[in-house]
């Protein structure tokens, strides 16, 4: 089959690789209907040292079950399924507590002999626990929105849930990428009173307004913090959803949050150390968030997509075939595209 | 009157200062029955540069109302009251949300012309909001336990509350000082399933066992983390109550906490930067805690002291008169005393 392999910064290729097959009784093989490129893929795309072996890319996909191991209950050939971006058994204590990202038998795509999602097919370990059946046909117009359950919507939702967003919550969302916009959508869905979106790409922040942002702040850093405070009687918002991953974003979040409030982050931190000293203690600020246990949220979010209440698939503004994936990376890295859908 | 003034590291003196008087209509003057020395007093005692003016010390006290301004409702001369370690109006939006430490009209003792608590009397601003009447006599045997409402018990309780401690929670408490032991007591009171106390002063950890610690860990750093993991099937505890304030304590907490768990801290951080990068995100660890809004908890904790359910005053293992306060500092800094009660 054809699949996407990253060989180093800027060097992404679509190549022939062995067809996936069931190896463990708990595996399934899924033929990919839709995949996509993630903002987090851009970090290695921007900086990975050259590697002769390469690294299979992609962790968001939905598709059709082609084959199942003998221990895979509840799934059969022909089922349309979505895969959360981490595979998990859905039965261990972490999973039953909703933290599938720490599953005792879980893992990620594109490593340890598991295929990446940006290819024609994927061997999915722990398939019964991981894959969720979708009540749609292979040509459903909902596929893009359903694909966001795999990562970007679930991640935005996780960010909002960990922050404790609810009906009386004011929210600042930092970042107008696909995760930031999904966080806006999630915050709105959870009833947030007011949602300030920090971003400066008008096409993206316009979509953010459609998703529920009540205010858009184009300024960054200290100026951005000042704008948040102007809009909140000097106090900041109860919660900040940090969807970027830079140290500046954390610092902005810390400045924009109200005393006693929460900064929740889901962007992969591009820093090891950060300011967590005296002022954070005196202001009773909480730092939370983390990698999203997407599997935990799919049943909750799915109905709202099926009935059209939310249309998270609007974050995809470009669609490419598999052979065009390298250009998709280029376009996302150049900010020409918000999020690229892949149709193998 | 006599009061305690710190002039620099190791240089604490008891001196004559002007008697406090009502200055604002919202003030009260309280004659101090009991005060005490706080672990946080030891930081300036250990490191403050010499200052000719000196700094009034002490922020924990209970006493008798001597005089009240004309706007002080609900209090009158002769009332026995406890003062939380920050004064607050108890009516602003932060206070009504339980965050008295961020009160819009609040402040601290020993600065801005307000007396410290380690003296014969204190002018208390925002007295109606700050002071809580105690249904006891001036010579009650409960005074030491009631004094802990001012800070140390409320702070331990805040640490546990912010961590989300409840009946199914396992807890590691870092630090066997008075706050750590109070955190043990608070966690126990909130129903924690298991409480691991990290500390290596046997007399203190013995009191910790009386307060509800199920296990005591004498090892520190990586070895201490290993012991916590051995006792929790390799996972760590759901929550960590960090009651020290050093970077090492935060790192130990991070190592001892279970994936998805919470490190709550109340010790004044002796660091500006700390590790909050990739691993914290991947493990979904929350960092919370903060300076305690003691006022918010007094009504809840008071009945358990009055009926003898808890005896937090057991943290006081030495009592001194006002003139012996300097020796009290010395004894606490030398770890000869756990916490020193002052009887002016």
TrEMBL record, chains A, B:
UniProt keyword Cell wall biogenesis/degradation, yes or no: no
Keyword Zinc attached: yes
Alcohol dehydrogenase-like C-terminal domain boundaries: 178-303
TM annotation in the entry: none
Any Pfam family matching the protein: ADH_N
Cofactor(s) in the UniProt record: Zn(2+)
Cross-referenced InterPro entries: ADH-like_C, ADH-like_N, GroES-like_sf, NAD(P)-bd_dom_sf
Keywords: Metal-binding, Zinc
Range of residues in the leader sequence: none
Protein name: IMP dehydrogenase
Organism: Streptomyces albospinus
Lineage, opening ranks: Bacteria, Bacillati, Actinomycetota, Actinomycetes, Kitasatosporales
């Amino acid at each position: 089959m054809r699949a996407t392999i990253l060989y180093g910064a800027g060097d992404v290729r679509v190549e022939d690789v062995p067809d996936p097959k069931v190896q463990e009784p708990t595996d399934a093989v899924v033929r990919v209907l839709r995949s996509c490129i993630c903002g987090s893929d851009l970090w290695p795309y921007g900086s990975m040292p050259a590697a002769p072996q390469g690294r299979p890319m992609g962790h968001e996909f939905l598709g059709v079950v082609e084959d199942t191991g003998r221990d895979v209950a509840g799934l059969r050939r022909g089922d349309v399924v979505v895969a959360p971006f981490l595979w998990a058994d859905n039965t261990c204590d972490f999973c039953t507590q909703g933290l599938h990202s720490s599953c005792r038998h879980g893992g990620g795509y594109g490593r340890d002999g598991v295929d990446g999602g940006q290819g024609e097919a994927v061997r999915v370990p722990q398939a019964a626990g991981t894959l969720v059946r979708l009540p749609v046909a292979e040509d459903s117009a909902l596929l893009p929105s359903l694909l966001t359950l795999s990562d970007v919507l679930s991640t935005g939702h996780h960010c909002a849930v960990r922050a404790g967003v609810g009906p009386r919550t004011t929210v600042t969302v930092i970042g107008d990428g696909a995760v930031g916009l999904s966080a806006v959508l999630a915050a709105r869905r959870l009833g947030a009173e007011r949602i300030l979106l920090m971003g400066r790409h008008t096409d993206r922040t316009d979509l953010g307004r459609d998703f529920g942002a009540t205010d858009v702040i184009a300024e960054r850093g200290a100026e951005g913090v000042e704008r948040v405070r102007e809009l909140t009687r000097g106090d900041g918002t109860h919660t900040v959803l940090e969807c970027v991953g830079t140290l500046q974003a954390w610092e902005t979040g810390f400045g924009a949050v109200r005393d006693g409030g929460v900064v929740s982050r889901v962007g992969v931190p591009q820093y090891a150390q950060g300011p967590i000293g005296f002022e954070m203690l005196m202001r009773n600020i909480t730092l939370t968030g983390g990698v999203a246990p997407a599997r935990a949220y799919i049943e909750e979010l799915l109905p709202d997509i099926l009935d059209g209440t939310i249309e998270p698939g609007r974050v995809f503004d470009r669609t490419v075939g598999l052979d065009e994936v390298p250009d998709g990376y280029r376009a996302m890295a150049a900010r020409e595209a918000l999020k690229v859908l892949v149709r193998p």
